[in-house]
Design a protein that fits this description.
single chain; alpha/beta; five-stranded parallel β-sheet; 7 helices; about 45% helix; globular
């Protein structure tokens, strides 16, 4: 058996805090991704988004489902602290609004940390939504990549596209 140790959430939280609060993000978009089931990580992202004075928008059906389940169980009230959108039409409308108003006012959390082709991040990169990435925008993968061939290949494709656009990863 491999003894792979995962750092505690407090360590991951500090790393995320350093990246979000310790990086010059003025005038740039910040897009982050994490596992939809990781409610503690979502809470941290929302907290840091508020410190950055950005509106937090969570995009993706799986996020919507996990947040709904956590709220039903009385574990959190994420939907009161962030806008949670799970359906294609509402996501499309929101990204169009963000594109018009200025992405620097938002912290976007979306599905796609494993590079899934149908996840929101992949679809944003492919241009399916009216959202433009600009040089110096930041994409934060706040999750480990599950090392299986489709994920490795898909994530490589995403990272290559982002680098071509000058996005910081």
């Amino acid at each position: 058996k491999d003894n792979i140790k995962t750092p505690s959430e407090s360590i991951a939280r500090e790393l995320l805090k350093d990246v979000l609060l310790g990086t010059d993000n003025d005038g740039t978009a910040i897009i982050t991704s994490c596992f939809a089931s990781h409610i503690a990580r979502l809470k941290s992202i929302i907290e840091f988004g508020k410190k950055l004075n950005r509106k937090v928008v969570i995009l993706g059906r799986s996020f919507m489902r996990y947040i709904d389940a956590a709220e039903t169980a009385g574990l959190t009230k994420i939907s009161k602290q962030a806008e949670v959108l799970g359906y294609r039409n509402e996501i499309k409308r929101k990204l169009n609004e963000i594109n018009k108003r200025g992405a620097e006012k938002y912290l976007i959390v979306c599905t796609g940390g494993q590079g899934e082709p149908n996840a929101i991040l992949s679809r944003m990169i492919k241009g399916e939504f009216k959202f433009k990435f600009f040089s110096e925008d930041q994409v934060i993968f706040s999750n480990k990549l599950i090392p299986v061939e489709p994920n490795l290949t898909n994530r490589n494709v995403i990272e290559t596209h982002l680098k071509e656009l000058g996005v910081r990863i």
